[in-house]
């Protein structure tokens, strides 16, 4: 299976057809967001009739020298907000459960900014913890970053997009989880029971549909 060239998120004001279209555009978008101050992975799937859907990946990097911290938050979120369209779902990785002290506080601040921004823009979102993400991707809730990246490249590199780093890999897995839950399975072959169970154990937004113009009964779930 061939490798697809990854597409980077464009800056705000990109031409029509790119994922940075204005939110007034009638389109369905699913976002995967792996947020961190140093490097935030973002994966985007955009669908506009007649299709097909397109995948985009990017890593948003910021410097610890950037002050004050809100300036850093703005650098991270600025490329994300233009990706939102009229029908958007965001799948966000939760703050790492092993984070402690100042690191945990800084991560929580950033996540709060992102979730607040999604809420204010009317975006349906769900927060997935790291064990759920790892279990879905590899079958093991304790998988390390190298395995997450290798599995993303081998299983998603041809079917979706080829992640350049660990941050993009996690974001892509989050995106694939969202697509799978709402009826679009990216991974080939039958669905392993453990993947279906991970999705079933997460409380997903009830109002989101991949194709809002169709009968919701036509949207399959695992």
UniProtKB/TrEMBL annotation:
This is Uncharacterized protein. InterPro entries: RNaseH-like_sf, RNaseH_sf, X-over_junc_endoDNase_RuvC. Residues 1-20 are annotated as: Disordered. One of its GO terms (molecular function) is hydrolase activity. Belongs to the RuvC family. It comes from Micromonospora aurantiaca (nom. illeg.). Keywords: Cytoplasm, DNA damage, DNA recombination, DNA repair, DNA-binding, Endonuclease, Hydrolase, Magnesium, Metal-binding, Nuclease. Pfam families: RuvC (PF02075). GO terms for biological process: DNA recombination; DNA repair. The keyword Acetylation does not apply.
């Amino acid at each position: 299976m061939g490798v697809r060239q990854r597409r980077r998120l464009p800056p705000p004001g990109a031409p029509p057809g790119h994922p940075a279209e204005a939110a007034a555009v009638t389109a369905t978008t699913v976002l995967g967001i792996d947020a961190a101050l140093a490097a935030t992975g973002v994966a985007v799937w955009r669908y506009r009739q007649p299709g097909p859907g397109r995948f985009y990946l990017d890593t948003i990097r910021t410097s610890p020298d950037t002050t004050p911290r809100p300036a850093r938050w703005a650098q991270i979120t600025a490329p994300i907000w233009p990706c939102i369209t009229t029908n958007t779902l965001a799948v966000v990785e939760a703050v790492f459960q092993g984070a402690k002290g100042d690191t945990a506080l800084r991560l929580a601040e950033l996540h709060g900014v992102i979730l607040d921004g999604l809420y204010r823009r009317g975006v349906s979102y769900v927060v997935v913890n790291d064990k759920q993400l790892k279990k879905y991707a590899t079958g093991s809730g304790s998988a390390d970053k190298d395995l997450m990246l290798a599995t993303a490249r081998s299983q998603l590199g041809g079917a979706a997009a080829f992640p350049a780093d660990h941050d993009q890999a996690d974001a892509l897995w989050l995106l694939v989880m969202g697509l799978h839950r709402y009826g679009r399975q990216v991974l080939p072959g039958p669905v392993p029971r453990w993947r279906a169970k991970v999705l079933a154990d997460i409380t997903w937004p009830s109002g989101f549909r991949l194709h809002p113009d169709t009968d919701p009964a036509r949207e399959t779930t695992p």
